[in-house]
Design brief:
The chain has 2 domains: about 1-50; about 50-235, no CATH class. About 65% of the residues lie in helices and about 0% in strands. It has helices spanning about 1-15, 20-35, 40-45, 50-70, 70-85, 85-100, 105-125, 135-145, 150-165, 175-195, 210-220. The chain is globular. The termini are far apart.
């Protein structure tokens, strides 16, 4: 029992340290438990065939697919368009939007997709990116509690209920807790948190592609060398 707690303590310390990837730390922990005899071979490998693990892996694939095909970026762009140049509206929309998206896509994928859009929108609205990025992160974390597939722990606890003969959670049942928390986060940043966020001023503004493209065409005289090719649907 002592060696078990030692391995657990070392694993937690490595997770906190962050020097090694979490998946590597988890695998090394499992291997250590097997080598000291706490787990046998069947118990050590049983997790790889667990339906919950497979479902979580599938969710990461779906989330990455949505991010790479541009759906999350498109959603973020729409949030910014609705906000216009209103700082208050932009703060609410990016926080709410990151929360809603992370209920169906992984938190990491949501934040990664919204980061460039949020930074660009902050400059357009006349505010600083440092005033919006933390609300996006908090909204994303809270949004994981909106659906059953929002975060891996939701799926794990639901699967434990099923294994013990207890009805599992429905898809939106977590929203009974998650939705009020998301609203609290939005209200907090709207009236209190926004004033506490740092003012990290920078001149490193994102490039405006629309205006830059026209400059490139003019400066490099490529306007006469541009061609358009149309491929019809029956091609």
């Amino acid at each position: 029992m002592t060696i078990l707690f030692v391995i657990l303590a070392v694993t937690i310390a490595l997770f906190i340290w962050g020097r090694f990837p979490p998946d590597v730390v988890a695998l090394m922990s499992m291997l250590a438990l097997y080598l000291v005899g706490v787990l046998n071979m069947e118990e050590s490998l049983s997790g790889f065939s667990n339906p919950t693990v497979i479902m979580i892996a599938a969710l990461f694939i779906i989330g990455e697919g949505l991010a790479r095909t541009g759906w999350t970026a498109l959603a973020g762009k729409k949030f910014v368009e609705w906000a216009g140049k209103s700082k208050s509206k932009l703060l609410i929309l990016v926080t709410l939007g990151s929360g809603v998206l992370s209920g169906f896509v992984s938190n990491t994928g949501t934040v990664a997709a919204l980061l460039p859009v949020t930074v660009s929108a902050a400059w357009k609205a006349g505010t600083l990116p440092s005033k919006l990025l933390m609300p996006v992160a908090f909204g994303s974390n809270t949004g994981g509690l909106l659906t059953l597939t929002g975060t891996p722990p939701n799926i794990i606890v639901s699967n434990v209920l099923t294994e013990n003969g207890i009805p599992s959670f429905s898809f939106f049942e977590f929203a009974l807790v998650g939705l009020p928390l998301l609203l609290i986060v939005i209200l907090y940043f709207k009236f209190i948190g926004y004033r506490l966020l740092p003012n990290h001023e920078t001149e490193d503004k994102p490039v405006n592609i629309d205006s830059e493209v026209h400059k490139w065409i003019k400066n490099y005289s490529i306007g006469d060398n541009m061609y358009r090719l149309r491929i019809r649907s029956m091609s």
